[in-house]
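pinned: reference chain
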Amino acid sequence: YMGELKGSVLFDTGVTFSGVHPKSIAEQETLEWQIIEKLGGSCNLNLDKFSVQYVVALEKRKTEKIKKAKEFNKPVVHLKWIYYCQSVSYTHLTLPTIYSVQISVVAVSIKKK
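pinned: its structure tokens
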């Protein structure tokens, strides 16, 4: 169950990279690509206006993807963002579930009175 929660941290989140990996390396084989997918996100080689929510970069250089990101109002995040997403603790993931269950139980008991 906890693995399922961890796999949903980036659920339905599309990411592309800009200037992070050397062109001689296939991005699909990089550790960062694997982490994104393990966390429930998807990686794209190109910046698509609809399926990509974040552009990951080491710095805000004037690459074509960075220019398009600005045009499409897509945030450019630092590479460290991926590792931050990976380090989200299970406690943070489970608290909303616990609270929503408690709230719904309280709401049901209030309606019965």
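why pinned: The CA atoms of residues 7 and 39 lie 4 Å apart. The longest strand covers residues 14-18.
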